[in-house]
Amino acid sequence: MLGFGADYSRPSYFYEYCDNPAPYIYKEKYVIAVGRDTLYAIMQENSKKTPNGVRFTDLGLSEPLLKAVAGQGYEIPTPIQAEAIPAVLKGRDVMAAAQTGTGKTAGFTLPILHRLSSRSVTDRSGGERGRRPVRSLIITPTRELAAQVEESVKTYGGHLPLRTAVVFGGVNINPQINKLRHGVDILVATPGRLLDLYGQRAVRFDNLEVLVLDEADRMLDMGFIHDIRKILAILPRRRQNLMFSATFSEEIRELARGLVNDPVEISVSPRNTTVDTVTQWVYPVDKDRKTDLLIHLINEQQWYQALVFSRTKHGANRLAQKLDKSGIQAMAIHGNKSQNARTRALADFKSGKTQILVATDIAARGLDIDQLPHVVNF
Fold it and tell me: Is 306 exposed, middle or buried (0-12, 13-18, 19+ CB in 10 A)?
Protein backbone atom coordinates (compact mmCIF):
# COMPACT_ATOMS: atom_id res chain seq x y z
CA MET A 1 0.00 0.00 0.00
CA LEU A 2 1.83 3.11 -1.21
CA GLY A 3 1.02 6.63 -0.18
CA PHE A 4 -1.07 5.78 2.85
CA GLY A 5 0.13 6.23 6.42
CA ALA A 6 -1.11 7.33 9.83
CA ASP A 7 -0.08 9.78 12.51
CA TYR A 8 -0.73 7.78 15.67
CA SER A 9 1.58 9.65 17.99
CA ARG A 10 -0.96 12.19 19.23
CA PRO A 11 -4.41 10.57 19.23
CA SER A 12 -7.63 11.91 20.72
CA TYR A 13 -8.56 9.44 23.44
CA PHE A 14 -11.90 8.14 24.56
CA TYR A 15 -12.16 6.23 27.77
CA GLU A 16 -13.99 2.99 27.19
CA TYR A 17 -12.48 0.95 30.00
CA CYS A 18 -11.92 3.54 32.70
CA ASP A 19 -14.06 4.61 35.65
CA ASN A 20 -13.77 8.40 35.86
CA PRO A 21 -10.33 8.22 34.19
CA ALA A 22 -9.46 11.88 33.60
CA PRO A 23 -7.95 12.69 37.03
CA TYR A 24 -5.68 9.68 36.78
CA ILE A 25 -4.61 9.95 33.15
CA TYR A 26 -3.41 13.52 33.19
CA LYS A 27 -2.04 13.80 36.74
CA GLU A 28 -1.07 10.61 38.52
CA LYS A 29 -1.04 7.88 35.92
CA TYR A 30 0.52 7.11 32.56
CA VAL A 31 -1.31 6.03 29.47
CA ILE A 32 -1.09 3.26 26.93
CA ALA A 33 -3.36 3.96 23.96
CA VAL A 34 -4.02 1.15 21.53
CA GLY A 35 -5.28 1.63 17.97
CA ARG A 36 -7.08 -1.49 16.76
CA ASP A 37 -7.99 -1.01 13.13
CA THR A 38 -5.78 -1.08 10.06
CA LEU A 39 -4.39 1.39 7.56
CA TYR A 40 -6.28 -0.48 4.86
CA ALA A 41 -9.52 0.23 6.70
CA ILE A 42 -8.56 3.89 6.92
CA MET A 43 -7.98 3.99 3.18
CA GLN A 44 -11.27 2.23 2.46
CA GLU A 45 -13.22 4.54 4.75
CA ASN A 46 -11.81 7.61 3.04
CA SER A 47 -12.56 6.10 -0.35
CA LYS A 48 -16.21 5.76 0.64
CA LYS A 49 -16.31 9.51 1.28
CA THR A 50 -15.06 10.43 -2.21
CA PRO A 51 -17.85 12.52 -3.76
CA ASN A 52 -20.00 11.58 -6.73
CA GLY A 53 -18.49 8.15 -7.29
CA VAL A 54 -15.27 9.56 -8.77
CA ARG A 55 -12.77 6.97 -9.97
CA PHE A 56 -9.11 7.28 -10.92
CA THR A 57 -10.13 6.90 -14.56
CA ASP A 58 -12.10 10.16 -14.27
CA LEU A 59 -9.15 12.31 -13.15
CA GLY A 60 -7.34 12.74 -16.48
CA LEU A 61 -4.32 10.57 -15.70
CA SER A 62 -2.43 8.83 -18.50
CA GLU A 63 -2.89 5.17 -19.30
CA PRO A 64 0.52 4.10 -17.89
CA LEU A 65 -0.37 5.72 -14.57
CA LEU A 66 -3.84 4.18 -14.50
CA LYS A 67 -2.24 0.80 -15.17
CA ALA A 68 0.11 1.29 -12.21
CA VAL A 69 -2.73 2.41 -9.94
CA ALA A 70 -4.84 -0.58 -10.92
CA GLY A 71 -1.84 -2.81 -10.30
CA GLN A 72 -1.88 -1.64 -6.67
CA GLY A 73 -5.57 -2.58 -6.40
CA TYR A 74 -6.98 0.98 -6.32
CA GLU A 75 -10.04 2.13 -8.24
CA ILE A 76 -11.51 4.93 -6.13
CA PRO A 77 -9.36 7.90 -5.08
CA THR A 78 -9.47 9.23 -1.56
CA PRO A 79 -10.98 12.72 -1.15
CA ILE A 80 -7.58 14.44 -1.05
CA GLN A 81 -6.58 12.66 -4.26
CA ALA A 82 -9.87 13.45 -6.00
CA GLU A 83 -9.39 17.17 -5.32
CA ALA A 84 -5.61 17.54 -5.55
CA ILE A 85 -4.87 15.56 -8.70
CA PRO A 86 -6.98 17.71 -11.09
CA ALA A 87 -5.60 20.92 -9.57
CA VAL A 88 -1.98 19.79 -9.96
CA LEU A 89 -2.66 18.60 -13.51
CA LYS A 90 -3.89 22.12 -14.35
CA GLY A 91 -0.60 23.56 -13.14
CA ARG A 92 -2.09 25.29 -10.09
CA ASP A 93 -0.21 25.82 -6.85
CA VAL A 94 -1.81 23.76 -4.08
CA MET A 95 -2.04 23.91 -0.29
CA ALA A 96 -3.57 20.62 0.80
CA ALA A 97 -4.40 19.70 4.38
CA ALA A 98 -5.52 16.18 5.24
CA GLN A 99 -4.93 13.66 7.98
CA THR A 100 -1.98 11.38 7.43
CA GLY A 101 -3.40 8.13 6.14
CA THR A 102 -5.59 9.75 3.51
CA GLY A 103 -3.30 9.32 0.51
CA LYS A 104 -1.47 12.65 0.25
CA THR A 105 1.57 11.00 -1.36
CA ALA A 106 -0.36 9.66 -4.34
CA GLY A 107 -2.17 13.01 -4.43
CA PHE A 108 1.00 14.68 -5.69
CA THR A 109 3.13 11.87 -7.17
CA LEU A 110 0.53 10.80 -9.73
CA PRO A 111 -0.10 14.23 -11.30
CA ILE A 112 3.62 15.12 -11.22
CA LEU A 113 4.45 11.91 -13.08
CA HIS A 114 1.72 12.71 -15.60
CA ARG A 115 2.95 16.25 -16.23
CA LEU A 116 6.63 15.36 -16.52
CA SER A 117 6.01 12.42 -18.86
CA SER A 118 3.71 14.41 -21.15
CA ARG A 119 6.35 16.87 -22.33
CA SER A 120 10.07 16.95 -23.04
CA VAL A 121 12.54 19.40 -21.55
CA THR A 122 15.64 21.22 -22.71
CA ASP A 123 18.47 21.36 -20.19
CA ARG A 124 19.17 25.00 -19.36
CA SER A 125 21.81 24.27 -16.74
CA GLY A 126 24.80 24.13 -19.06
CA GLY A 127 25.66 20.71 -17.63
CA GLU A 128 26.81 17.54 -19.30
CA ARG A 129 25.24 16.78 -22.65
CA GLY A 130 22.41 14.25 -22.36
CA ARG A 131 22.24 14.57 -18.60
CA ARG A 132 18.69 14.68 -17.26
CA PRO A 133 17.96 17.83 -15.25
CA VAL A 134 16.00 17.74 -12.01
CA ARG A 135 12.46 18.72 -12.95
CA SER A 136 10.63 17.95 -9.71
CA LEU A 137 11.94 18.30 -6.16
CA ILE A 138 10.11 16.66 -3.25
CA ILE A 139 11.33 17.65 0.21
CA THR A 140 10.41 15.55 3.26
CA PRO A 141 11.37 15.91 6.95
CA THR A 142 12.77 12.41 7.60
CA ARG A 143 14.90 9.84 5.85
CA GLU A 144 12.27 7.12 6.23
CA LEU A 145 9.56 9.25 4.66
CA ALA A 146 11.90 10.28 1.84
CA ALA A 147 12.63 6.63 1.03
CA GLN A 148 8.94 5.82 1.15
CA VAL A 149 7.98 8.68 -1.18
CA GLU A 150 10.62 7.55 -3.67
CA GLU A 151 9.20 4.03 -3.49
CA SER A 152 5.79 5.46 -4.32
CA VAL A 153 7.20 7.42 -7.27
CA LYS A 154 8.89 4.30 -8.60
CA THR A 155 5.78 2.18 -8.22
CA TYR A 156 3.39 4.61 -9.90
CA GLY A 157 5.98 5.59 -12.51
CA GLY A 158 6.95 2.02 -13.32
CA HIS A 159 5.58 2.25 -16.87
CA LEU A 160 7.12 5.67 -17.60
CA PRO A 161 10.63 6.58 -18.87
CA LEU A 162 11.39 8.82 -15.90
CA ARG A 163 14.25 8.53 -13.43
CA THR A 164 14.02 9.16 -9.72
CA ALA A 165 16.48 9.33 -6.83
CA VAL A 166 16.35 9.83 -3.07
CA VAL A 167 19.03 11.60 -1.02
CA PHE A 168 19.31 11.91 2.75
CA GLY A 169 21.98 12.09 5.44
CA GLY A 170 23.41 9.33 7.58
CA VAL A 171 24.85 7.46 4.59
CA ASN A 172 27.80 7.93 2.22
CA ILE A 173 27.21 10.94 -0.02
CA ASN A 174 29.33 9.66 -2.95
CA PRO A 175 26.82 7.14 -4.37
CA GLN A 176 24.20 9.89 -4.28
CA ILE A 177 26.53 12.23 -6.20
CA ASN A 178 27.20 9.53 -8.80
CA LYS A 179 23.49 8.91 -9.31
CA LEU A 180 22.80 12.60 -9.75
CA ARG A 181 25.57 12.79 -12.36
CA HIS A 182 23.61 10.34 -14.49
CA GLY A 183 20.60 12.63 -14.25
CA VAL A 184 17.23 12.30 -12.54
CA ASP A 185 13.81 13.74 -13.33
CA ILE A 186 12.38 13.53 -9.80
CA LEU A 187 14.52 14.07 -6.72
CA VAL A 188 13.25 13.24 -3.21
CA ALA A 189 15.38 14.76 -0.47
CA THR A 190 15.70 15.77 3.15
CA PRO A 191 16.72 19.42 3.62
CA GLY A 192 20.21 19.01 5.11
CA ARG A 193 21.58 16.53 2.58
CA LEU A 194 20.07 18.52 -0.28
CA LEU A 195 21.98 21.63 0.78
CA ASP A 196 25.16 19.56 1.15
CA LEU A 197 24.82 18.29 -2.42
CA TYR A 198 24.08 21.75 -3.75
CA GLY A 199 27.13 23.11 -1.93
CA GLN A 200 29.26 20.48 -3.68
CA ARG A 201 27.71 21.43 -7.04
CA ALA A 202 26.32 17.93 -7.42
CA VAL A 203 22.82 19.15 -8.24
CA ARG A 204 21.31 22.12 -10.06
CA PHE A 205 17.75 23.34 -10.34
CA ASP A 206 17.74 25.46 -13.51
CA ASN A 207 15.07 23.22 -15.05
CA LEU A 208 12.93 22.73 -11.95
CA GLU A 209 9.22 22.70 -12.74
CA VAL A 210 7.55 21.43 -9.54
CA LEU A 211 8.45 21.81 -5.87
CA VAL A 212 6.70 19.74 -3.19
CA LEU A 213 6.96 20.34 0.56
CA ASP A 214 5.62 17.14 2.09
CA GLU A 215 4.63 17.13 5.77
CA ALA A 216 5.39 20.85 5.94
CA ASP A 217 4.18 21.19 9.52
CA ARG A 218 6.50 18.41 10.62
CA MET A 219 9.46 20.15 8.97
CA LEU A 220 8.76 23.28 10.97
CA ASP A 221 8.38 21.23 14.16
CA MET A 222 11.82 19.70 13.54
CA GLY A 223 13.47 23.11 13.08
CA PHE A 224 14.02 22.96 9.31
CA ILE A 225 12.57 26.41 8.59
CA HIS A 226 15.99 28.00 7.97
CA ASP A 227 17.07 25.17 5.65
CA ILE A 228 13.79 25.45 3.75
CA ARG A 229 14.30 29.18 3.25
CA LYS A 230 17.84 28.52 1.97
CA ILE A 231 16.50 25.96 -0.49
CA LEU A 232 13.77 28.29 -1.74
CA ALA A 233 16.40 30.95 -2.39
CA ILE A 234 18.33 28.74 -4.83
CA LEU A 235 15.32 27.57 -6.84
CA PRO A 236 14.02 29.28 -9.99
CA ARG A 237 11.14 31.64 -9.27
CA ARG A 238 8.97 30.25 -12.03
CA ARG A 239 7.72 26.87 -10.82
CA GLN A 240 4.66 25.06 -9.50
CA ASN A 241 4.51 24.81 -5.71
CA LEU A 242 2.67 22.13 -3.73
CA MET A 243 2.40 22.07 0.07
CA PHE A 244 0.98 18.93 1.65
CA SER A 245 0.54 18.77 5.39
CA ALA A 246 -1.57 17.22 8.13
CA THR A 247 -2.39 20.71 9.43
CA PHE A 248 -1.88 24.31 8.35
CA SER A 249 -0.96 26.38 11.38
CA GLU A 250 -0.32 30.12 11.27
CA GLU A 251 3.41 29.37 10.99
CA ILE A 252 2.80 27.22 7.92
CA ARG A 253 0.63 29.90 6.35
CA GLU A 254 3.34 32.47 6.99
CA LEU A 255 5.81 30.29 5.08
CA ALA A 256 3.26 29.76 2.32
CA ARG A 257 2.84 33.50 1.73
CA GLY A 258 6.31 33.63 0.22
CA LEU A 259 5.97 30.34 -1.61
CA VAL A 260 2.63 29.69 -3.30
CA ASN A 261 0.90 31.86 -5.87
CA ASP A 262 -2.90 31.99 -5.84
CA PRO A 263 -3.09 28.43 -4.50
CA VAL A 264 -5.98 26.02 -4.58
CA GLU A 265 -6.65 25.29 -0.89
CA ILE A 266 -7.87 21.80 -0.10
CA SER A 267 -8.96 20.50 3.27
CA VAL A 268 -10.75 17.20 3.60
CA SER A 269 -10.90 16.87 7.38
CA PRO A 270 -11.24 19.11 10.43
CA ARG A 271 -8.04 20.26 12.09
CA ASN A 272 -6.52 17.95 14.74
CA THR A 273 -9.05 15.15 14.33
CA THR A 274 -8.53 11.41 14.56
CA VAL A 275 -9.51 9.11 11.71
CA ASP A 276 -12.88 7.70 12.72
CA THR A 277 -12.10 4.12 11.69
CA VAL A 278 -9.43 3.77 14.38
CA THR A 279 -10.83 2.53 17.67
CA GLN A 280 -8.80 3.58 20.70
CA TRP A 281 -8.48 2.47 24.32
CA VAL A 282 -6.81 4.08 27.31
CA TYR A 283 -5.29 2.01 30.10
CA PRO A 284 -4.45 3.93 33.33
CA VAL A 285 -1.36 2.33 34.86
CA ASP A 286 1.41 3.19 37.32
CA LYS A 287 4.66 4.23 35.67
CA ASP A 288 6.66 1.26 36.92
CA ARG A 289 4.01 -1.18 35.65
CA LYS A 290 3.74 0.13 32.07
CA THR A 291 6.15 -2.41 30.61
CA ASP A 292 4.44 -5.28 32.45
CA LEU A 293 1.07 -4.17 31.11
CA LEU A 294 2.40 -3.92 27.56
CA ILE A 295 3.89 -7.42 27.75
CA HIS A 296 0.59 -8.71 29.15
CA LEU A 297 -1.40 -7.15 26.29
CA ILE A 298 0.98 -8.50 23.64
CA ASN A 299 0.82 -12.04 25.03
CA GLU A 300 -2.81 -12.12 26.20
CA GLN A 301 -4.24 -10.66 23.00
CA GLN A 302 -1.68 -12.39 20.76
CA TRP A 303 -0.44 -9.29 18.98
CA TYR A 304 1.62 -10.43 16.04
CA GLN A 305 2.61 -6.86 15.05
CA ALA A 306 2.58 -3.56 16.95
CA LEU A 307 4.23 -0.16 16.63
CA VAL A 308 5.09 1.32 20.03
CA PHE A 309 5.99 4.99 20.45
CA SER A 310 8.48 6.00 23.12
CA ARG A 311 9.17 9.61 24.16
CA THR A 312 12.98 9.26 24.25
CA LYS A 313 15.69 7.36 22.41
CA HIS A 314 16.99 5.83 25.64
CA GLY A 315 13.48 4.78 26.58
CA ALA A 316 13.00 3.12 23.18
CA ASN A 317 16.21 1.12 23.58
CA ARG A 318 15.35 0.11 27.15
CA LEU A 319 11.82 -1.00 26.26
CA ALA A 320 12.99 -3.02 23.23
CA GLN A 321 15.55 -4.80 25.43
CA LYS A 322 12.93 -5.63 28.09
CA LEU A 323 10.56 -7.01 25.46
CA ASP A 324 13.36 -9.15 24.01
CA LYS A 325 14.14 -10.56 27.46
CA SER A 326 10.45 -11.50 27.78
CA GLY A 327 10.63 -13.54 24.59
CA ILE A 328 9.02 -10.91 22.35
CA GLN A 329 10.94 -10.02 19.19
CA ALA A 330 11.47 -6.25 19.32
CA MET A 331 13.72 -3.62 17.76
CA ALA A 332 14.16 0.10 18.39
CA ILE A 333 14.32 2.83 15.75
CA HIS A 334 15.37 6.42 16.43
CA GLY A 335 17.70 9.19 15.32
CA ASN A 336 20.83 7.80 16.99
CA LYS A 337 20.65 4.62 14.95
CA SER A 338 22.61 4.48 11.69
CA GLN A 339 20.59 4.75 8.52
CA ASN A 340 21.34 1.13 7.65
CA ALA A 341 20.13 0.00 11.08
CA ARG A 342 16.94 2.06 10.75
CA THR A 343 16.25 0.74 7.26
CA ARG A 344 16.84 -2.86 8.37
CA ALA A 345 14.63 -2.50 11.45
CA LEU A 346 11.77 -1.05 9.42
CA ALA A 347 12.11 -3.72 6.72
CA ASP A 348 12.11 -6.53 9.30
CA PHE A 349 9.02 -5.05 10.94
CA LYS A 350 7.14 -4.72 7.66
CA SER A 351 8.01 -8.29 6.67
CA GLY A 352 6.89 -9.67 10.02
CA LYS A 353 10.36 -10.82 11.07
CA THR A 354 10.21 -8.35 13.99
CA GLN A 355 7.05 -8.47 16.09
CA ILE A 356 7.31 -5.12 17.90
CA LEU A 357 8.93 -1.92 16.61
CA VAL A 358 9.67 0.64 19.33
CA ALA A 359 10.10 4.11 17.84
CA THR A 360 10.53 7.73 18.76
CA ASP A 361 8.56 10.32 16.79
CA ILE A 362 10.84 9.64 13.81
CA ALA A 363 8.15 7.16 12.71
CA ALA A 364 5.13 9.16 13.79
CA ARG A 365 4.07 10.45 10.41
CA GLY A 366 3.56 8.98 6.99
CA LEU A 367 5.16 5.55 7.22
CA ASP A 368 3.47 2.93 5.06
CA ILE A 369 2.95 -0.32 6.97
CA ASP A 370 0.36 -2.49 5.29
CA GLN A 371 -2.61 -3.39 7.56
CA LEU A 372 -0.90 -2.43 10.81
CA PRO A 373 -3.19 -3.79 13.56
CA HIS A 374 -1.88 -2.16 16.77
CA VAL A 375 -0.28 1.14 17.73
CA VAL A 376 0.75 2.02 21.29
CA ASN A 377 1.58 5.39 22.84
CA PHE A 378 3.81 4.26 25.68
Answer: buried
CA atoms of 327 and 295, how far apart (whole Å): 10
pLDDT at 1: 28
Mean residue pLDDT of the chain comes to: 80
pLDDT digits (tens, 9 = 90+) for 13-65: 323 333 333 322 222 333 344 433 333 333 334 444 555 678 999 999 999 99
Measure the CA–CA gap between 111 and 210, rounded to whole angstroms: 11
- How many other CB atoms sit within 10 Å of the CB of residue 340? 10
Q: Do 61 and 69 form a contact (C-beta atoms < 8 A)? A: yes
Cβ neighbours of residue 129 under 8 Å, at least 6 residues apart? none
CB-CB neighbours of 128 under 10 Å: 11
Question: What is the maximal distance between C-alpha atoms in the chain?
Answer: 71
Q: Are 294 and 309 in contact (CB under 8 A)?
A: no
